[in-house]
Design a protein that fits this description.
The complex is a heterodimer of chains A (85) and B (218). In chain A, 25% of the residues are buried. Chain A contains four helices and one strand. Chain A starts with 6 loop residues before the first helix and ends in a 12-residue tail after the last helix. With 85 residues, chain A is mostly helical. Chain B has 218 residues and is of the alpha+beta class. Chain B has a five-stranded antiparallel beta sheet with strand order 4-3-2-1-5. In chain B, 30% of the residues lie in helices and 16% in strands. Classes of the chains: A mainly alpha (85), B alpha+beta (218). The interface between A and B is large, with 30 and 42 residues. Strand 1 of chain A pairs parallel with strand 4 of chain B, so a sheet runs across the interface.
Chain lengths: 85, 218
């Protein structure tokens, strides 16, 4: 997406990840440690989103319906079960 | 180079604004710009590290006022002119004014697939790896005017080797040359407060992929 390649994200993701997450409406618990991966070589990184609560017995396909692009970049969380696509 | 692309830690750019249901391309010219850059990859007149540096060399005021594909187009025009394939007059005129140069012929079919296939930049190791996971390292202090993949914000900072990624083409040496100069590539973890001081949150980390010439033992 355009935002990923534009100065606001490129400048702030490494310095203020919580501020960037707030721009996406995401707030993490205070005790969560954040790791930002700056792709300075040709290796690309994906986030495997945390399993949403209440999906412990879901199949792989059903879980896939909760995964969003932003959740795999790290600027969003996977959808909760009631918002399955 | 300390160019306009080296943005990590810069202030004043405002919030991240995401467009809802954003199209892949926002105008037809963006599709053509993308295709032209990819097609020139097939022509093998230059490689990705030279391409990237050409974008970085866009004057800062122009770069920061440009959209992503405007930057791609600026880099392409810069390389076309520098390689004598297109003249400034032709860019201004918007058309060819002299007979075209001969470049690599396109194959009968499969060109798009070939262009879109990702390349591997992994190469044979020139020597054993200097560092191993867990080693404390310092990103070197350096200030090259040429192409480097070591951002300013970590130069001089101490981190820890998180993983060894194999040997890869070294962009700092490869840019503008045929010399791939492969070196060991490492994922290095830096503590946020080591990099940003009081403005870095204790417990947060930044991981960068850095080549062995970028690092020294800490």
């Amino acid at each position: 997406p355009v935002w990923y390649k534009a100065p606001p994200y490129r400048a702030r993701a490494v310095a203020d990840p919580r501020g960037v997450l707030a721009d996406f409406g995401v707030t993490l618990p205070e005790e969560t440690a954040i790791r930002v991966w700056d792709s300075t070589a040709e290796i690309r990184y994906l986030v495997v989103p945390m399993r949403p609560a209440g999906t412990e017995d879901w199949s792989e396909d059903r879980l896939a319906s909760l995964v969003t692009r932003n959740a795999m970049i790290g600027t969003g969380l996977a959808l909760p079960p009631e918002e399955a696509a | 180079m300390n160019g306009p692309h080296d943005l990590g830690g810069a202030h004043g750019f405002g919030p991240v604004v995401a467009e809802e249901n954003e199209p892949v391309f926002h105008a037809d010219w963006e599709k053509r710009a993308f295709a032209l850059v990819m097609a020139m990859g097939h022509a093998a007149a230059w490689h990705i590290d030279t391409s990237r540096h050409a974008r970085e060399r866009t004057p800062p005021a122009e770069y920061l006022a440009s959209s992503y594909y405007q930057i791609w187009l600026a880099g392409l025009e810069r390389l076309l002119v520098e390689h004598g394939l297109v003249s400034e007059e032709e860019i201004a005129a918007g058309k060819s004014l002299t007979p075209p140069a001969k470049l690599a012929a396109a194959p009968a079919d499969g060109l798009v697939e070939k262009l879109m296939a990702s390349s591997s930049y992994e190469r044979a190791a020139p020597a054993p790896a200097r560092f191993k996971a867990g080693d404390p390292v310092r990103a070197r202090v350096m200030n090259p005017a040429g192409h480097t993949r070591l951002p300013r914000y970590v130069r001089g900072r101490t981190g820890t080797i998180a993983a060894i990624r194999g040997c890869h083409v070294f962009p700092d040496a490869h840019c503008g040359t045929d010399n791939e100069d492969p070196h060991w590539l490492y994922s290095v973890a830096f503590a946020a407060d080591e990099v940003w001081g009081p403005q870095g949150r204790v417990g947060d980390e930044i991981y960068l992929d850095l080549w062995e010439p970028h690092l020294e033992p800490a």
